Amino acid sequence: MDAGPKIAPNYLSTDEDRRIAADCIRLTRRLMAQDAIAPSRPEEFRPGPAVGNGDAELIHAAGDIGTTIFHPVGTAKMGLTSDPLAVVDERLRVRGFERLRVIDASVMPTITSGNTNTPTIMIAAKGAEMVIEDGRKG
Fold this sequence. Notes:
3 helices; elongated; mainly alpha; 36% helix
């Protein structure tokens, strides 16, 4: 069969998801209305000032504008030796290979709750330190 995969992420499929989405828009609006932000004169682009603060309006708006930014992680998961899904050890060495490491976001066992950029920079810095340290050992 040549059919492609069917992907159904079920965004906003639960009452909790919808409530959180509406609350996030409300919170962003409150933050942008603070006196400290006023000198920057922020203008709401999406969902836009024409959209009210009611649950139904905000949930609908969240569904219209919502998206995701995929930050793939975990394809070379770091973990304990006892974890059959762990590809690298605590020093980012690939199990079963000599002198091979993975030093990027793929070693994260799970995705972070925020952007993956800073944790990835940290992994790179720490990984570089480990390579140098292990190189000195011999």
